[in-house]
From TrEMBL, chains A, B:
Cofactor: pyridoxal 5'-phosphate
Family assignment from sequence similarity: Belongs to the class-I pyridoxal-phosphate-dependent aminotransferase family.
Identification of the protein by name: Pyridoxal phosphate-dependent aminotransferase
One Gene Ontology molecular-function label: transaminase activity
Pfam family, one: Aminotran_1_2
SUBUNIT field: Homodimer.
Aminotransferase class I/classII large domain segment(s): 21-358
Keywords: Aminotransferase, Pyridoxal phosphate, Transferase
GO BP annotations listed: amino acid metabolic process
Keyword Thylakoid: no
Keyword Cell membrane attached: no
């Protein structure tokens, strides 16, 4: 079996090895500070008694699950604390495929490339529904594509790579479609704290036995490397997901869970608002410069990404590497996100140098 | 699909909920101190710049892989840093089954129950080779059981639950058998620092394209909750294992990797020897008391466990729960480890109260 491994790490390594300074806009790694309480949580943990260094409950520390449950308005029993949203999505997709209700995973085009990779690994087949130019998904298109073969519909809102935020009506329709064809809507909401539009609607708002929500603090707390996320399952699907989690990972890292719990409790809304405002400023700076360069682009409603298109410069891996070497800006090839964005490049606004990056792009494509 | 979830967490919860003081000898959670350098590593990490909180390389921090590679005498490219030995074994077993060279996983009886659980989850089938009373595995029995259908042979040395340590000759034969039937020997060596016999032989000593070694610092550094382990794959099998790791977990927790790297570098042999000596003392104390109680038992050559048999008290879950309630000692039911040990109970020597526990058992069975 050959999996398609997402290209992120490859492009980052290429950029690191480049013989010049490169502005890194490849991966969704925030460059801002984690909450102080998260750092303090790690310090506190370091001083705990030996028993606190041992296995936490497999499904996650009870206090952490309760904290998440209260915030999300669900029963703690339905939550599995995972090794980031990555494992949460893996568990959700595996659970959907194991229901013996089809082996098709319905994805969007463009798509976050881990989803098709996980699908292949889990023995499922991918089908794609195209979004519009702005990244919005028409539920009628999803309904037309869904069938008895559909095991899951996987969406990501706010969206990577398009920056789209799906309105509440779309989320309601997606859950309804999952119910109609006996599939599971998997809503990956890891960018929920970076909704710039005020339009974000969590799938948790629609009660259903056909809906799983995945999330993590990786983006909201700027700690992609700590690896603490979670999935909220319907009551009928959670037991088997917990078993898979136990059999794959035994448990999620305890120092990370401890620090995240402290950070959830002690971090006020100003932390998150500051990060959103920084992102808004960067979007404006970057897109202004793209305007000046005459490039086409999407202005994100949420998440970290701007997709841009430069005339005669398709979004291939080769062109991304050339841009690293010749312009000193590292993005992601649009082709990594699906057939509909092969002309595009994706830039993550996770560097203080967005203005300089935009200027380099403008000079290069001038 | 219904997985068989290992019972450990269930028994621990039962013991926690008991209406009396209970000596916990259920799980392999060391009660001794982690290395000071590991604690210090977490403190150091807490003060690092934001970029150090982001995704490490998917296969693990380069410096950690190099540190492990040097210690184990292998190329760093063959190492995947995992979420504990649990994920390492999952990756190894998945890799073996994907080779399209059989779907049988050959296990020992008694067995560490995560192995059959993982096998079912991965769509494989279990076969068992019985060990002798001391837990030793006769390679001729393995050879007789192995066939073209065998994808992997999974062993654990030093062994949980028997305490057996396989001699070098057994390891050589097991690798040879894997080569003969085009299978993979997976050697889980997570208790390697608790060899009390001096006889431990790592499968890494035998160079082969049919051998994967898994390990972790969970036991050696008394940090089962930190979740840092690794697998060493043959060159031809490593790429796909790295892909699966990326698609399941993206990466292993970075604060944990950082702290473990520091602890590997700065912890001297006295730390490990002190823990072995404590274990030797506890084995002696516990088995002396079992002798006095007239119980049958195995004295471990390695790992944390003593298997004991009390006349007319088979090792069922029901009897384990009765022992918790009536004697105040929590062990694991032998039936959890396979058909051959249904008469036995397993006690983990990870409490300072082993003498008190043995006395309680002696009184209860008097």
């Amino acid at each position: 079996m050959n999996y398609e491994t997402p290209l992120f790490f490859h492009v980052m390594e290429y950029a690191d090895a480049a013989d010049r300074d490169v502005i890194d806009m490849v991966s969704g790694n925030p460059d801002w500070q984690p909450p102080d309480a998260l750092r303090e949580g790690l310090r506190e943990y370091a001083d705990l008694e030996p028993d606190r260094f041992q296995y936490p409950p497999s499904e996650g520390l009870l206090e952490l699950r309760e904290e998440i449950a209260t915030r999300r308005g669900v029963d703690a029993d339905r939550i599995v604390v995972t090794n980031g949203a990555g494992e949460a999505n893996y568990l959700a997709m595996a659970r959907a495929l194991e229901r013996d209700s089809g082996d098709e995973i319905l994805l969007t085009d463009p798509v976050y490339p881990y989803y098709p990779g996980k699908t292949t690994m889990l023995g499922g087949t991918q089908s794609y529904v195209a979004t519009d130019e702005a990244g919005q998904l028409d539920p009628d298109d999803v309904r037309a594509a869904a069938s008895a073969e559909t095991a899951a519909i996987v969406v990501n809102t706010p969206n990577n790579p398009t920056g789209a935020v799906y309105p509440a009506e779309t989320m309601r329709e997606l859950v309804a479609i999952a119910e109609e064809v006996d599939a599971v809507l998997i809503s990956d909401e890891v960018y929920d704290h970076y909704d710039l539009s005020g339009e974000f609607a969590s799938a948790l708002e629609i009660d259903s036995d056909h809906r799983v929500v995945t999330n993590a603090v990786s983006k909201s707390m700027a700690v992609t490397g700590v690896r603490v996320g979670y999935a909220v399952f319907p009551p009928g699907l959670v037991a088997n997901a917990k078993s898979r989690h136990m059999l794959v990972n035994v448990a999620t890292t305890r120092p990370g869970q401890y620090a995240v719990l402290k950070a959830l409790r002690e971090t006020g809304p100003d932390y998150y608002e500051r990060n959103r405002q920084r992102l808004r400023d960067r979007v404006e700076t970057f897109t202004d410069a793209l305007d000046a360069a005459g490039a086409e682009y999407t202005s994100p409603s949420g998440s970290f990404y701007v997709m841009a298109r430069f005339d005669g410069y398709p979004g291939t891996l080769e062109n991304v590497e050339r841009l690293i070497d010749e312009a000193g800006v590292a993005g992601m090839p649009g082709e990594a996100f699906g057939d509909s964005r092969t002309e595009w490049l994706r830039f993550a606004l996770v560097t203080p140098c967005v203005e300089e990056a935009a200027e380099r792009l403008a000079r290069y494509f001038d």
